[in-house]
Every structure is written in structure tokens, then in C-alpha cells.
Write a structure and sequence with these properties.
Blueprint (H helix, E strand, L loop, with lengths): L2 H7 L3 E4 L10 E4 L3 H6 L5 E5 L4 H10 L3 E4 L7 H9 L4 E3 L4 H10 L3 E2 L5
Parallel strand pairs: 2-3, 2-6, 3-4, 4-5
Antiparallel strand pairs: 1-5
Length: about 120
């Protein structure tokens, strides 16, 4: 699914990376534990999280994630947005909770990092 489609489904807005909205997202990891994201096959995934720290950007970059969506309308400090820009990693924010955002993406046939097992 394209990142632009995900943005519409989640009513999300881009903090960085609107020009990368044609990126393909293969699956979704929803977690505030970055070790869970690193432990899974996260390449090409979307990371849903409530964390707004540098570690989120670094983890997503190392894991090969396609983009990050911050839940509950969170907006990080400008330094975090700048780091996402340096990593060329789209960063979005949605007013939805993690539960609702995950459910909406699942309803649109995106699977979790465990591929629905």
C-alpha cells in the first residue's frame, strides 16, 4: 500500500516526507518498545508509535522501515523532525490512538510484522 493511502486512512498529516508519499508499505509494526521493532522483520514496514524521541527515528532507520506515524496527534521537537529528514524517513502524525490506527490499517489488509500469524 502506498504511504499516501495510509495517510488518508489514518487522517494523518506529514511532518516530513510528503514528497515520498509514493513509498510502498508492506506491513505495520505498532509498538512503543523499539526492541520489538528490531526483533521483527521490519524492512518496508510502517512504524506506529506514541514515542517522539530520537530513538524512534534511529530504530526505524536501522530496521529499514518505510515511514513512521506518531499516534494521538503527537508532534515531536523540531530536532526529531530534522533527524527524520536526514534519514529521509517520512514522519507523519495522526489524531487516532494506536488501537484505532492499527485496526483501520488491518481493515485495509495491511498485516502486522508477524504477517497475521
Amino acid at each position: 500500500m502506498l504511504l499516501s493511502e495510509i495517510a488518508m486512512i489514518l487522517k494523518a498529516r506529514f511532518l516530513f516526507g510528503r514528497e515520498l508519499c509514493s513509498k510502498e508499505v508492506l506491513n505495520v509494526g505498532a509498538s512503543d518498545l523499539m526492541s520489538d521493532i528490531l526483533a521483527a522483520d521490519s524492512a518496508g514496514s510502517l512504524l506506529l508509535t506514541g514515542l517522539t524521541t530520537q530513538q524512534v527515528i534511529r530504530t526505524a532507520s536501522i530496521a529499514g522501515a518505510s515511514a513512521i506515524v506518531l499516534i494521538r496527534g503527537k508532534v515531536p521537537h523540531q530536532a526529531i523532525i530534522d533527524l527524520a529528514r536526514e534519514e529521509n524517513l517520512p514522519l507523519l502524525t495522526t489524531p487516532l490512538s494506536m488501537f484505532v490506527a492499527s485496526g483501520r490499517l488491518y481493515m485495509h489488509e495491511l498485516k502486522g510484522l508477524d504477517n497475521g500469524r
